[in-house]
Every structure is written in structure tokens, then in C-alpha cells.
Design the sequence.
């Protein structure tokens, strides 16, 4: 049988070129002959790998990067842009690079669509504006015209080309149809325009959602659609920041939750609380999300018990759930029924969760009731809570849909004990103390009651206790808190500074 290596070098060069980029390195390193055949492509491959493998938009920097040459214009760019010489500031510009050489899309293994030149508060870049005003080049038009996704949904090509020209949400969705190798994605903040429940964007949603649904379908049916885009996606990363003004619906992220390869989703500033005022409704859309989804982190968010239940019950194998609550614009989430929230998590995920973190980033109103019993968690090994969550009256299921005004009293404070509240499976428990208020200190004294004596029998796996304390700039514990913190330390807690984990007592 003739050997592949016996072929003329010119043919081997063509064969090696066909392996770019996914199998190029393995092929080139397999033997000296193929390494020699890879010579014409190695420099370009190295440059593209550096620029595109972990893609982020080019950004200007104030200081000259180390080793960079002096710039005649006085402008300097981030290190990757400076080294590769490939400046890309909008989604459209990235699509233009892919249109010129389709293999560019296959280099991308992680992509961050936040922070394009169109999002800065600085004066708009003249080059960017000029590039958007220019007609879409023929290569990119052809890429759109031949898209199997747009064809399959009978999409209006003029709509797509117009949206891509101005680097709108159309450009983001079209880009996703090209990324077969991507593992991690952070979406642009404008992704929240894809909320099918928002009537302001009905026109856009009618055109884009069929493509999103098709992406999910093909990613989940690789036997029928090999190399489908997003079929290797494992992690979805935050598209927004934290903050009072930041908010996004959760529904636009459902297509990613439903992709079977996705194992981790981390989002910020999501609201799924249909309070009829400043909240946002949630439509789960499908009956089950990824069976491989193990970790869900929702930071700086607002959730109601029913919407939370609808989300969690569609994630059958969830093992890690992290949630931090933050009051949003015009008081959304101002009052929070914490007992109902935690009880919902326990009811839906009690048999699968191994790690649970529920904290308060910023919340000003009534915190409702306290969940006294978390023993229905069967596998929970790690738990993190704020002291503030444990200072209310005892929660019972009749309170699930209750709403209280800021200063309403819902009963006498119950003061749970850790030996009664925690499940026997617990291995690590962290507690966060943000103020030295009387109720918070009193809560600590009740939590540790009987802990030293009963820990070995009631909580046999508990081997790590941490009390994280928010300190003022002088980093000294006030006298009023010393008694309780010393008692907590005697009961086995490490007393640490919140944010630095420095031992302070």
C-alpha cells in the first residue's frame, strides 16, 4: 500500500492546509515530513490562534504596552491586538474576517462579545462609524446569502444584511451560526432584546428566534448535524455587570440552557419576577434544559419563588447553585421572601445539590421569613448564607406567595440553631456578617447554641466553619461584637475578613 508520506511535497502541503485550524498542530507535529509541509502556514496559524482562540474586541489602552513600538497617532491597543496587528472592534468586523476566510471561525474557542467600540462612553471612534456606514462587502453578503440557517427558516436576507451592517443583535445571532468550536461565550448586553415577552421587540424576535431554536436543535442532534454550531459549548458567562440600573430578562438565555453540552451557566442582573410593576416575566419555553448542566450562578439578580421553581425543575442534575440578590431599578426586589426562596430550592433540588450559596448583595426592604429546616437536602456538602437571612420568623409553606411591606411584622423572630437547621451531609458552612446590628449578633449566638456538644453526632461530616465579617477601613472588631465572635470562634468558626479571607480573631 502506498504511503501518504510518499506523495509529492506539493500535495502534502495541500493536505496539511486542509487540517487548519482544528487538526493542524497535531498533523504538523506527527512527523518531520508533515512538519516540513506545514511550513508555509505556521506563522499565520500562530497569529490567528493568538488573536482568535480566546476572542475579545480590540480596545484602546492609555499606556504603551511593554515592547510596543512608538505610535505616530499616539494610540495604543491591548496586548493581543498590538502583537497580532488584527484590530476588530465590532461584531460586523469579526464577521468580515470570517467571510474572507471561513477557517477563522473555527479558531474561536471562547468569545466575549461585551465591550465593543459601540458600547463605550467615550467619543465614538471615527473609523468604527465609517466602517459601519460602508456597504457590507460582497464576501460577507455571500456568507449571509448561503447561510443554511437563514434559508431553513425562510429568513428575509435584506433584514439580516441590514442588521449585520449596523452590528446589531442580528450580527450576534448570525455569528453564533458559524461557531462550531466555541466552548465559552459571553454575550453582548443587547442580548436582552431577544425577550419574546417584550412587545417592543416583537418584529426582531419573530425573525431571530427561529434561528436560535434551530441552533439549539442542531447542537443537540449531532448524529444528524455533525459539527453543528455551539455543539461544543460548555459555559455561558455573564453579559452584564452588577448594579441598581443593570437588569436583563432570563428568557433570552433559554436557548443556551437547553444545549446538551452546556455544563455551567453564569449570569448577572437577571430578573425573573413578574411582579406586575418593575419586574420581568419568565418563559421557560421548553420542558427540560441540559442534562449536563451542573452549575448555575445568578449574581445580582431578582427571582420570585414560582419563576425560580420553573427554572430549577428543568435542570435535573444541578449540583451547584449560587445566587446573590440585588434590589434593582425602581425597587424591583426591594422586599424579598427569603424563606420561600430557600424552600423552593430545597423542594426542587434537594436530592441533587452539593453546593448552595445564597447571599444578599444589596437589599433594603423586608426579608420575610427564615427557613428553619434544611435537612431535606440529601447531598448538600457546602452551604453559604448571610446572617441577615436568619433573623426572621419561622417560615411555613403557607407563606410561599406572601408579600410584606418594608416594615410589616410577619411574626416573632425564630432564631434557628445550626444543629437543627443543617443537613447531616454538610461538610463546609460559611456565614456572612455585613453589619454589627443587635439582631445579627443575637442570631449568631443562637446559631452556635449547642454546636460544640452536638456537632459530632448531628453534623458528623462538618469540618469547616467560616464567619466572614465585613470590616470598616480600620479593620478592628467593635467591642459590641467581640463576645459573639469569640463565642463563634470557640464553637469552631474561623473569623475572617470578608473580601480578603484574612483571619481577624
Sequence:
Amino acid at each position: 500500500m502506498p504511503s501518504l508520506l510518499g506523495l509529492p511535497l506539493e500535495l502534502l502541503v495541500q493536505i496539511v492546509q486542509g487540517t487548519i485550524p482544528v487538526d493542524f498542530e497535531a498533523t504538523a507535529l506527527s512527523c518531520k515530513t508533515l512538519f516540513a509541509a506545514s511550513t508555509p502556514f505556521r506563522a499565520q496559524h500562530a497569529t490567528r490562534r493568538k488573536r482568535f482562540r480566546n476572542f475579545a474586541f480590540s480596545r484602546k489602552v492609555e499606556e504603551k504596552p511593554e515592547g510596543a513600538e512608538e505610535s505616530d497617532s499616539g494610540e495604543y491597543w491591548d496586548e493581543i491586538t498590538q502583537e497580532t496587528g488584527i484590530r476588530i472592534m465590532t461584531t460586523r468586523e469579526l464577521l468580515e474576517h470570517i467571510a474572507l476566510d471561513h477557517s477563522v471561525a473555527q479558531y474561536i474557542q471562547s468569545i466575549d462579545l461585551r465591550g465593543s467600540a459601540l458600547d463605550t462612553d467615550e467619543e465614538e471612534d471615527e473609523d468604527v462609524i465609517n466602517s459601519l456606514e460602508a456597504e457590507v462587502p460582497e464576501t460577507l453578503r455571500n456568507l449571509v446569502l448561503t447561510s443554511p440557517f437563514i434559508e431553513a427558516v425562510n429568513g428575509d436576507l435584506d433584514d439580516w444584511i441590514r442588521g449585520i451592517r449596523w452590528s446589531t443583535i442580528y450580527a450576534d445571532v448570525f455569528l453564533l451560526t458559524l461557531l462550531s468550536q466555541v466552548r465559552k461565550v459571553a454575550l453582548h448586553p443587547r442580548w436582552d432584546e431577544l425577550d419574546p415577552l417584550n412587545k417592543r421587540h416583537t418584529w426582531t424576535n419573530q425573525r431571530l428566534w427561529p434561528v436560535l431554536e434551530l441552533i439549539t436543535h442542531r447542537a443537540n442532534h449531532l448524529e444528524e448535524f455533525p459539527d453543528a454550531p455551539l455543539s461544543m459549548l460548555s459555559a455561558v458567562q455573564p453579559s452584564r455587570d452588577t448594579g441598581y440600573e443593570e437588569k436583563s430578562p432570563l428568557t433570552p438565555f433559554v436557548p443556551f440552557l437547553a444545549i446538551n453540552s452546556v455544563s455551567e451557566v453564569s449570569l448577572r442582573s437577571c430578573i425573573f419576577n413578574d411582579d406586575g410593576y418593575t419586574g420581568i416575566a419568565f418563559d421557560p419555553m421548553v420542558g427540560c434544559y441540559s442534562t449536563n448542566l451542573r452549575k448555575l450562578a445568578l449574581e445580582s439578580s431578582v427571582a420570585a419563588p414560582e419563576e425560580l421553581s420553573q427554572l430549577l425543575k428543568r435542570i435535573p442534575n444541578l449540583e451547584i447553585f449560587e445566587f446573590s440578590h440585588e434590589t434593582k431599578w425602581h425597587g424591583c426586589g426591594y422586599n424579598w421572601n427569603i424563606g420561600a426562596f430557600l424552600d423552593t430550592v430545597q423542594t426542587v433540588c434537594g436530592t441533587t445539590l452539593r453546593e448552595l450559596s445564597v447571599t444578599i448583595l444589596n437589599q433594603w426592604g423586608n426579608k420575610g421569613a427564615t427557613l428553619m429546616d434544611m435537612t431535606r437536602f440529601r447531598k448538600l456538602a457546602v452551604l453559604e448564607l448571610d446572617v441577615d437571612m436568619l433573623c426572621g420568623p419561622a417560615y411555613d409553606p403557607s407563606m410561599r406567595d406572601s408579600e410584606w411591606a418594608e416594615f410589616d411584622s410577619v411574626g416573632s423572630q425564630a432564631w434557628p440553631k445550626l444543629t437543627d437547621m443543617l443537613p447531616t451531609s454538610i461538610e463546609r458552612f460559611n456565614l456572612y456578617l455585613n453589619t454589627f446590628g443587635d439582631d445579627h449578633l443575637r442570631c449568631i449566638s443562637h446559631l452556635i447554641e449547642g454546636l460544640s456538644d452536638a456537632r459530632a453526632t448531628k453534623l458528623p461530616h462538618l469540618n469547616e466553619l467560616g464567619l466572614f465579617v465585613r470590616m470598616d477601613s480600620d479593620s478592628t472588631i467593635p467591642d459590641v461584637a467581640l463576645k459573639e465572635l469569640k463565642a463563634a470562634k470557640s464553637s469552631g468558626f474561623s473569623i475572617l475578613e470578608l473580601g480578603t479571607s484574612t483571619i481577624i480573631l
Summary: The first strand starts at residue 54 and ends at 56.
